[in-house]
Amino acid sequence: MARPRKLNKKLISLILEKIADGETIREIFETDGNGIDCSWTTFRKALVSDKDDLMIRYEKSKSLAVDYLLSDIEHKRKKLEKQLMSGEIDPKQGHNLVNILKIMTTNRQWSASKLRPKVYSKAAELTIKGDKTEPLNIKWNS
Fold first, then answer.
1. 9-118: which CATH architecture?
2. Res. 1: pLDDT tops 80
3. Are 79 and 97 in contact (CB under 8 A)?
4. How high is the pLDDT of residue 123?
5. How far does CA 101 lie from the centroid of its chain?
6. What is the pLDDT of residues 113-127, one digit of tens each?
7. What span, in angstroms and rounded, lies between the C-alpha atoms of 136 and 33?
8. Contact partners, residue 89, CB within 8 Å, separation at least 6
């Protein structure tokens, strides 16, 4: 069945909500029966044309998704910690789950640094301000 090509405000809001909840573009547009009855191409064209500040709203949704996904990792960590402390999970199984959680955390941190570099990037940034009429002097004390 062909997907309708019309985007409306309700559909755009639904797409942006799904993005903010951490779903990927691929998941949103390739999952049948999720209420999204347009294609990625249609949505992308709307983003590019940027009617109604859609690109800004899209970027805010992506930003919210990063925060959601990072909090999801923290939630899983706390849950695993409780299960280990209560003895619900034996130490050997817990060790494997901790390693999986480490991998997931690293992946989410990397994603966050790419999607929101100003907030989550590890890169050091140096800004030097000074008088434009004076030269910049750098000295090393030995």
1. Orthogonal Bundle (1.10)
2. no
3. no
4. 65
5. 17
6. 887 777 777 765 666
7. 62
8. 80, 83, 97
